[in-house]
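The passage that follows is intended for readers who have already worked through the single-chain material. We present the inputs for a multi-component assembly, then the predicted structure in tokenized form, and finally a short commentary. You are encouraged to pause after the input and sketch how you expect the pieces to fit together before reading on.
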Amino acid sequence: MSNISEFTLSQIVSGIKKKEFKSEEVTESFVTNSKKSKKLNTYITECFDQAISSAKKFDQKGDYKGLLSGVPMAVKDLFCTKNVKTTAGSKILNNFIPTYESTVTNNLWSQGAFLLGKLNCDEFAMGSSNETSFFGSVINPYGEKLVPGGSSGGSASALAANLTPATIGTDTGGSIRQPASFTGTVGLKPTYGRCSRWGIVAFASSLDQAGPMTKNVEDCALLLEAISGYDPKDSTSIDAKVENYSSHLTEKIKGLKIGIPKEYRVDNMPSEIDNLWKKGIEYLKDAGAIIKNISLPHTTYALPAYYIVAPAEASSNLARYDGVKYGHRAKGNNLIEMYENTRSEGFGDEVKRRILIGTYVLSSGYYDAYYLKAQKVRQLIKSDFDKAFKNVDAILTPSTPNSAFKIGDKKDDPISMYLNDIFTVPANLSGLPAISVPAGHDKNNLPLGLQFIGKAFGEQTILNLSLAIEKRANFNKNFKVWWN
Amino acid sequence: MKKKEFNYFINGEKSKWEVIIGLEVHAQVLSKSKLFSSSSTKFGADPNTQVSLVDSGFPGMLPVINQFCVEQSVKTGLGLKAKINLNSVFDRKNYFYADLPQGYQISQYKNPIVGEGEVVLDMPYGSKKIRIERLHLEQDAGKSIHDMDPNNSYVDLNRSGVALMEIVSKPDLRSPEEVNIYIKKLRSIMRYLGTCDGNMQEGSLRADVNVSVRTVGEKEFGTRCEIKNVNSIKFMQMAIEYESKRQVELLESGKKINQETRLFDTKKNITRSMRSKEDAHDYRYFPDPDLLPLSLEQTLIDRLKKDLPELPDQKKERFIKEHNLSAYEANILVSEKEISDYYEEVVKECDKKLATNWITVELFAVLNKKNLSISKSPVSAKNLSKLIKMITLGKISGKIAKDVFEKMQIGNKDPEQIVQKEGLIQQSDPKKLEKMISEVLLKNQDKVTQYKSGKVKLFGFFVGEVMKVSEGKANPQLVNEILKKKLK
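Having made your guess, compare it with the prediction:
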């Protein structure tokens, strides 16, 4: 039954329900794959034995009521998991074992899934290539030297390589959508407030959202349904009805108006990205959608604003990692020295860089010029979208300005690394839902994704649009398993 | 009573100086749980037993506002006659310290929940308004303990996350005594409201004291120093006295005041420099992205306003108008909620003027002697009321009442039972009194002769003898009347 791992999440859920196979067989299949995947470096913590015993228990009990009954799932190591080490990809949390479970993972488990392991990610989700992890770079199954994108790079690689049937990541500036695009998978960042942030190691609180990463759109709808919901423990979560995304999923999108923002046609964008975008437009026209050219005039300011707001919040959010209460503690002759040593040893370069930027932009004398201005830009970007959504139902853009790049290519050039988020950050700054769906390949046969940005709580619409693309693009994984 | 003059000035060698004081009072909100978590706020628990994952800054933990604390601060704002802001914002105040688990304190910076208000002080030289600049909500930090081990510090997070109201006054205070009355008044208002227990020993009320000086007549303020975290009124007064003199000496010797934060050393009774303005923290305030802006419904404010209890100023006015008390008496009675509660219980069934006297003279003397608060009074309000009623009905004399009062203090005894058991009811039967008096006069024929020949001072002697014979029970007024008649 080695091919179970190639099934989609929906196929696995229904196969278990119909007793075509047991949860144990499913779990064994992913565990076997995972064990052979060391070269990809996707796992930080493996929970294979525990998963198999959970599967056995499930098979004995046979409770098929959940949306994810009997499904093993590895998740990004940014979600706190009870009694399972949670590192956020950082040395400073290398020994941290939470006594609590994040709301989102808890939602998975209460739908019948169980934990397969914790997946590698950029340190504190800060990165676009998964090269900043204390636990080493993750490799993209599309090539031994390729990054999977980041920060949810471990999740994307594990998913593409059939190490987990589906997974969840977090997206602060594109951390779900960009790796999804780099690995030929589907990744959705929900509306801000759709999923609880409680128990997720915080990077930038006003931008962070958890979201599903799956093999296809149908799975994405199912998993989104499972993890969404209001949580009184998160003051920013929103009490809006959770749709039955999977049962309402349809490719019938006739008459929907789709905006094409001219500002996303950036300088030096490879022609294959532009061509992909055009192809996407053709697919949508074919499905009966109405294409409208629109303008989002403040788009060029999104990336700079993002790289002020996100580090500012991060500099404060990461202050708690001081060696006093938990995590790594270095020696020092006094409190200040202990802090300095702990944080110097515990944090990697990219995290330090962002803490420095964040501290700087919040400092007195600079606050107005940077942080406050960035917040104003954020408002302008939001109102751009508000205006646009008066005339369109969703917006189509490329997910990334390029395909997966080589490990080390951008590591020493933060600006060029940051530019990878250029199409994804506006959705975070405005709190809107956005999805990346695989739509084609570049000349090197590397996957490329298209992005839909939807109205607040318009997840169903962008899922449906993505399904229409998926049906027409006939995207195929075209790599061979080389890492066994 | 003639009003006194305000007279707190520092006479330097060269000039006469005025002291300018502003207070930032930190009042712990009276609530069962903390500002952003459900941990208990009970005082005196073992270290780190009242700490949630939120209070200790664990990864992924998020604050959720305690609505009760919000209402408490709105009530306090209303009690300070202040503007309530329908929209306010929680900000992060970032700094590192071992007892600050998140690495920031959640506070309110630019947009506090309560705006400008006032507190009225009753000073011997008249009433004085102290303007309140703002009140904001914030979290308390934990406690660092440095004296348990020579090499390590310990941290207790029980206080971490407890709700505080920071009440900032304008620089309107001018003497240590005004500070004393201000703190007491503020404390009293909050205790009437039930929003802060005002317990200074337990740290529920502490203040940062801003002090500057200027020569009398000068309009501009001088450079101020902030004395951090003073936790008793006595220390505040001592700190102000020391600090203002220090500043005067510096200025008179031609030096400048450095704007700085100072500490009050309670062993030496001096203030010491803690950090200068240059070393001041840059707190990097910014709106807390984990919390939505706090918005209040006008209906909530209206409801809280409607349910507001009678506050000391209103109560005082009512006592003066309706109970015919003097301003002085009313002031004493309303100064603490427990005293006015006691008083109001007593006067339910007896004379108000007499009750005021008994409480402020006899009862206070006993409480002072035994070092008790009125809530622990050995005589209950109900029993004191009964005693006073017996006096006004003429059942016992004032003198007997004092003896009875003495006896009531042991086991809060019922005065009626004491009087009955010991047969202390006043003798007011004119026939019996007349008989008693006749006997006394007969026994003291010589003194009667002397009295009649002009030695009128002997009248007191006859009264005393009658009282002796009656064992103190004779109605003194009647005795006087009958004696006067008989000695004509």
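Commentary: Chain B has a mean pLDDT of 94. Chain B has 15 helices and 16 strands. How closely did your sketch match?
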